[in-house]
Amino acid sequence: EIVLTQSPATLSLSPGERATLSCRASQSVRSYLAWYQQKPGQAPRLLIYDASNRATGIPARFSGSGSGTDFTLTISSLEPEDFAVYYCQQRSNWRTFGQGTKLEIK
Amino acid sequence: EVQLVESGGGLVQPGGSLRLSCAASGFTFSSYSMNWVRQAPGKGLEWVSYISSSGTAIYYADSVKGRFTMSRDNAKNSLYLQMNSLRAEDTAVYYCARGEDCDFWGQGTLVTVSS
Question: Residue A14 has what pLDDT?
Answer without folding.
Answer: 97
